[in-house]
Amino acid sequence: MSITVTEKAARHIQKTLDKRGKGVGLRLAVKTSGCSGMAYALEFADESQPEDLIFESGGVKLLVDPRSLPYLEGTELDFVREGLNEGFKFNNPNAKAECGCGESFAV
């Protein structure tokens, strides 16, 4: 299995990296937090770390630390616009429950 992005998410990631003028990809992680127990963490990475697992999807690189991988395995990252809001949406097959905002989940 792997972690993938939709075409819209890949375009948004690449556009942001281009605007920043630097970066190797998007770092995905999970942390213990949020109203459902686990929260997603995203940041643009300027360099990879030796322990990073790197997935390429849609022409962009996704960097994941080994501790987060069991929670993110098989996830598809999308970029959606709903009304005035826009942002990343996680389609995570490991999530058994999600909070209303979609930023935290339980496994």
Plain-language structure description:
The protein has 107 residues and is of the alpha+beta class. The chain has one domain: Hypothetical Protein Aq_1857, Chain: A (Sandwich), CATH 2.60.300. It contains 2 helices and 9 strands; from the N terminus they run βαββββαββββ. The protein has helices at residues 7-20, 69-72, and strands at 4-5, 25-32, 38-45, 53-57, 60-64, 76-82, 85-91, 97-98, 104-106. It has a 6-stranded mixed beta sheet. The protein has a 3-stranded mixed beta sheet with strand order 1-6-7. β2 and β3 form a beta hairpin. The longest helix is centred in the first third of the chain and has 14 residues, at 7-20. The chain starts with a strand and ends with a strand.
